[in-house]
Sequence to fold (246 residues):
Amino acid sequence: MKAVILAAGSARRLSPLTDSKHKSLLEIGSKPILEYQLDALDHYGVNDVLIVIGFLKEQIINRYGNHYKNLEIQYIDNPDFLTTNTVYSLWLARDYFENEDFLYFNADVIFHYSLIGRLLKSENESTLGVEIKNCGEEEVKIIPDEDQRVIHIGKKIDLDKSIGEFVGIGRFSASLTEDFIASLKSVIDDGDQMSFFEKAVNLILDKHEIYYEDITEIPVIEIDFPEDLEKAKNVILPKILSFVHV
Fold:
Protein backbone atom coordinates (compact mmCIF):
# COMPACT_ATOMS: atom_id res chain seq x y z
CA MET A 1 0.00 0.00 0.00
CA LYS A 2 1.23 3.46 -0.97
CA ALA A 3 -0.05 6.93 -0.10
CA VAL A 4 -0.45 10.03 -2.28
CA ILE A 5 -0.93 13.39 -0.58
CA LEU A 6 -1.88 16.39 -2.71
CA ALA A 7 -0.36 19.55 -1.26
CA ALA A 8 0.33 21.79 -4.26
CA GLY A 9 -2.35 24.47 -3.87
CA SER A 10 -1.95 28.02 -2.60
CA ALA A 11 -5.06 28.05 -0.36
CA ARG A 12 -6.09 31.57 -1.31
CA ARG A 13 -9.39 31.19 0.58
CA LEU A 14 -7.38 31.24 3.82
CA SER A 15 -5.37 34.34 2.93
CA PRO A 16 -3.61 36.12 4.63
CA LEU A 17 -2.81 33.16 6.93
CA THR A 18 -1.52 31.18 3.98
CA ASP A 19 0.27 33.96 2.11
CA SER A 20 3.61 33.00 3.63
CA LYS A 21 2.86 29.64 5.24
CA HIS A 22 1.65 26.50 3.51
CA LYS A 23 -1.86 25.56 4.56
CA SER A 24 -0.87 22.01 5.44
CA LEU A 25 1.63 23.41 7.96
CA LEU A 26 -0.92 25.47 9.88
CA GLU A 27 -1.03 24.06 13.39
CA ILE A 28 -4.14 22.51 14.88
CA GLY A 29 -3.33 21.89 18.50
CA SER A 30 0.21 20.61 18.89
CA LYS A 31 1.00 19.79 15.26
CA PRO A 32 0.47 20.84 11.64
CA ILE A 33 -2.43 19.58 9.55
CA LEU A 34 -0.14 17.43 7.40
CA GLU A 35 1.24 15.67 10.44
CA TYR A 36 -2.15 14.18 11.30
CA GLN A 37 -1.94 12.36 7.98
CA LEU A 38 1.70 11.33 8.30
CA ASP A 39 1.18 10.08 11.86
CA ALA A 40 -1.86 8.03 10.78
CA LEU A 41 0.12 6.44 7.95
CA ASP A 42 2.95 5.65 10.33
CA HIS A 43 0.53 4.12 12.83
CA TYR A 44 -0.78 1.67 10.23
CA GLY A 45 2.58 0.92 8.63
CA VAL A 46 1.90 2.60 5.30
CA ASN A 47 5.46 3.77 4.92
CA ASP A 48 5.72 4.64 1.21
CA VAL A 49 4.48 8.21 0.72
CA LEU A 50 4.45 10.66 -2.17
CA ILE A 51 3.58 14.32 -1.62
CA VAL A 52 2.69 16.46 -4.64
CA ILE A 53 4.01 19.94 -3.85
CA GLY A 54 3.91 23.35 -5.51
CA PHE A 55 3.17 26.53 -3.56
CA LEU A 56 5.78 27.16 -0.82
CA LYS A 57 7.11 23.67 -1.50
CA GLU A 58 10.37 24.32 0.34
CA GLN A 59 8.50 24.63 3.62
CA ILE A 60 7.23 21.06 3.39
CA ILE A 61 10.52 19.63 2.13
CA ASN A 62 12.54 21.44 4.78
CA ARG A 63 10.29 20.25 7.59
CA TYR A 64 9.94 16.58 6.63
CA GLY A 65 12.66 15.81 4.12
CA ASN A 66 12.64 12.23 2.86
CA HIS A 67 12.09 10.60 6.25
CA TYR A 68 9.50 11.09 8.96
CA LYS A 69 9.31 8.48 11.72
CA ASN A 70 9.09 5.22 9.74
CA LEU A 71 7.94 6.89 6.54
CA GLU A 72 9.93 7.20 3.33
CA ILE A 73 8.76 10.37 1.58
CA GLN A 74 9.12 11.29 -2.07
CA TYR A 75 8.04 14.52 -3.77
CA ILE A 76 6.72 15.53 -7.18
CA ASP A 77 6.56 19.20 -8.07
CA ASN A 78 3.51 20.76 -9.71
CA PRO A 79 4.97 24.00 -11.04
CA ASP A 80 1.58 24.94 -12.52
CA PHE A 81 -0.22 24.95 -9.17
CA LEU A 82 -1.82 28.34 -9.81
CA THR A 83 -3.53 27.20 -13.00
CA THR A 84 -4.31 23.56 -12.18
CA ASN A 85 -6.16 21.58 -9.55
CA THR A 86 -6.18 18.11 -7.99
CA VAL A 87 -6.91 16.30 -11.26
CA TYR A 88 -3.60 17.58 -12.62
CA SER A 89 -1.62 17.00 -9.42
CA LEU A 90 -2.80 13.39 -9.27
CA TRP A 91 -1.95 12.95 -12.96
CA LEU A 92 1.62 14.05 -12.18
CA ALA A 93 1.80 11.23 -9.61
CA ARG A 94 0.61 8.55 -12.05
CA ASP A 95 3.91 6.66 -12.35
CA TYR A 96 4.03 6.35 -8.58
CA PHE A 97 0.63 4.74 -8.07
CA GLU A 98 0.12 2.87 -11.35
CA ASN A 99 -0.59 -0.82 -10.63
CA GLU A 100 -0.41 -0.15 -6.89
CA ASP A 101 -2.99 -0.05 -4.12
CA PHE A 102 -2.89 3.47 -2.72
CA LEU A 103 -4.46 5.82 -0.24
CA TYR A 104 -5.44 9.27 -1.48
CA PHE A 105 -5.33 12.41 0.68
CA ASN A 106 -6.10 16.06 0.27
CA ALA A 107 -3.42 17.68 2.42
CA ASP A 108 -5.87 19.91 4.30
CA VAL A 109 -7.73 17.25 6.31
CA ILE A 110 -7.32 16.53 10.02
CA PHE A 111 -8.85 13.41 11.53
CA HIS A 112 -8.52 10.74 14.15
CA TYR A 113 -6.01 8.19 12.88
CA SER A 114 -8.57 5.37 13.03
CA LEU A 115 -10.16 6.70 9.85
CA ILE A 116 -7.24 5.16 7.94
CA GLY A 117 -7.72 1.88 9.74
CA ARG A 118 -11.37 1.90 8.70
CA LEU A 119 -10.44 2.23 5.02
CA LEU A 120 -7.66 -0.35 5.22
CA LYS A 121 -9.91 -2.90 6.91
CA SER A 122 -12.82 -2.37 4.53
CA GLU A 123 -13.99 -5.41 2.60
CA ASN A 124 -14.07 -3.16 -0.47
CA GLU A 125 -10.78 -2.67 -2.28
CA SER A 126 -11.74 0.83 -3.43
CA THR A 127 -13.64 2.97 -0.97
CA LEU A 128 -14.15 6.63 -0.10
CA GLY A 129 -14.43 8.03 3.40
CA VAL A 130 -17.85 9.67 3.64
CA GLU A 131 -19.50 11.61 6.45
CA ILE A 132 -23.24 11.02 6.30
CA LYS A 133 -24.97 14.38 6.59
CA ASN A 134 -26.94 17.05 4.77
CA CYS A 135 -24.56 18.98 2.52
CA GLY A 136 -24.48 22.35 0.85
CA GLU A 137 -23.19 23.40 -2.55
CA GLU A 138 -19.52 23.60 -1.52
CA GLU A 139 -18.99 20.06 -0.24
CA VAL A 140 -17.90 17.19 -2.48
CA LYS A 141 -20.88 14.85 -2.29
CA ILE A 142 -21.64 11.30 -3.34
CA ILE A 143 -24.69 9.46 -4.62
CA PRO A 144 -24.61 5.70 -3.96
CA ASP A 145 -26.79 2.79 -4.92
CA GLU A 146 -28.45 0.50 -2.38
CA ASP A 147 -25.25 -1.55 -2.03
CA GLN A 148 -23.11 1.47 -1.06
CA ARG A 149 -21.49 1.56 -4.47
CA VAL A 150 -20.75 5.13 -5.56
CA ILE A 151 -22.57 6.07 -8.75
CA HIS A 152 -21.73 9.79 -8.77
CA ILE A 153 -19.35 12.12 -6.96
CA GLY A 154 -18.85 15.87 -7.14
CA LYS A 155 -19.93 19.25 -5.88
CA LYS A 156 -22.63 19.88 -8.47
CA ILE A 157 -24.98 16.99 -7.84
CA ASP A 158 -28.55 16.72 -6.60
CA LEU A 159 -28.56 17.55 -2.88
CA ASP A 160 -31.66 15.42 -2.37
CA LYS A 161 -29.90 12.33 -3.71
CA SER A 162 -26.62 12.92 -1.91
CA ILE A 163 -26.04 11.04 1.34
CA GLY A 164 -23.03 12.98 2.57
CA GLU A 165 -19.59 14.49 2.08
CA PHE A 166 -16.48 12.82 0.72
CA VAL A 167 -13.92 13.90 3.32
CA GLY A 168 -10.92 13.97 0.98
CA ILE A 169 -9.47 10.58 1.90
CA GLY A 170 -9.95 7.38 -0.07
CA ARG A 171 -8.48 4.00 -0.90
CA PHE A 172 -8.00 2.84 -4.48
CA SER A 173 -7.23 -0.63 -5.78
CA ALA A 174 -4.33 -1.36 -8.12
CA SER A 175 -6.82 -2.99 -10.49
CA LEU A 176 -8.41 0.34 -11.45
CA THR A 177 -5.29 2.50 -11.73
CA GLU A 178 -4.75 2.02 -15.46
CA ASP A 179 -8.25 3.23 -16.26
CA PHE A 180 -8.05 5.92 -13.60
CA ILE A 181 -4.87 7.33 -15.15
CA ALA A 182 -6.56 7.28 -18.56
CA SER A 183 -9.51 9.21 -17.13
CA LEU A 184 -7.22 11.79 -15.54
CA LYS A 185 -5.57 12.26 -18.94
CA SER A 186 -8.95 12.57 -20.63
CA VAL A 187 -10.01 15.40 -18.32
CA ILE A 188 -6.71 17.22 -18.82
CA ASP A 189 -6.73 16.72 -22.59
CA ASP A 190 -10.18 18.31 -22.63
CA GLY A 191 -8.55 21.44 -21.19
CA ASP A 192 -10.10 20.98 -17.78
CA GLN A 193 -6.96 20.82 -15.62
CA MET A 194 -8.65 23.13 -13.11
CA SER A 195 -11.09 20.36 -12.20
CA PHE A 196 -11.02 18.36 -9.01
CA PHE A 197 -9.88 14.76 -9.27
CA GLU A 198 -13.44 13.60 -8.60
CA LYS A 199 -14.28 14.39 -12.23
CA ALA A 200 -11.88 11.64 -13.30
CA VAL A 201 -13.32 9.28 -10.68
CA ASN A 202 -16.76 9.71 -12.26
CA LEU A 203 -15.43 8.50 -15.59
CA ILE A 204 -14.55 5.05 -14.20
CA LEU A 205 -17.54 4.42 -11.94
CA ASP A 206 -19.39 2.42 -14.57
CA LYS A 207 -16.42 0.09 -15.06
CA HIS A 208 -14.95 -0.20 -11.56
CA GLU A 209 -16.66 -0.73 -8.24
CA ILE A 210 -15.92 2.08 -5.80
CA TYR A 211 -17.84 2.09 -2.54
CA TYR A 212 -18.19 4.47 0.36
CA GLU A 213 -17.20 3.83 3.94
CA ASP A 214 -19.36 5.48 6.59
CA ILE A 215 -16.91 7.29 8.87
CA THR A 216 -19.47 9.66 10.40
CA GLU A 217 -18.55 8.92 14.02
CA ILE A 218 -14.82 9.56 13.45
CA PRO A 219 -13.79 13.21 13.98
CA VAL A 220 -12.65 14.73 10.68
CA ILE A 221 -12.71 18.05 8.84
CA GLU A 222 -11.35 19.36 5.56
CA ILE A 223 -10.11 22.91 6.03
CA ASP A 224 -10.94 25.29 3.17
CA PHE A 225 -12.26 28.45 4.81
CA PRO A 226 -11.48 30.47 7.97
CA GLU A 227 -14.57 29.05 9.64
CA ASP A 228 -13.29 25.53 8.95
CA LEU A 229 -10.03 26.40 10.65
CA GLU A 230 -11.83 27.68 13.73
CA LYS A 231 -14.06 24.61 13.83
CA ALA A 232 -11.00 22.37 13.50
CA LYS A 233 -9.38 24.02 16.51
CA ASN A 234 -12.41 24.43 18.74
CA VAL A 235 -14.69 21.51 17.85
CA ILE A 236 -12.91 18.76 15.90
CA LEU A 237 -9.59 18.75 17.78
CA PRO A 238 -11.24 18.18 21.20
CA LYS A 239 -13.22 15.34 19.65
CA ILE A 240 -10.03 13.82 18.20
CA LEU A 241 -8.28 14.01 21.55
CA SER A 242 -11.19 12.38 23.39
CA PHE A 243 -12.19 9.88 20.72
CA VAL A 244 -12.23 6.27 21.90
CA HIS A 245 -11.10 3.97 19.11
CA VAL A 246 -12.75 0.55 19.35
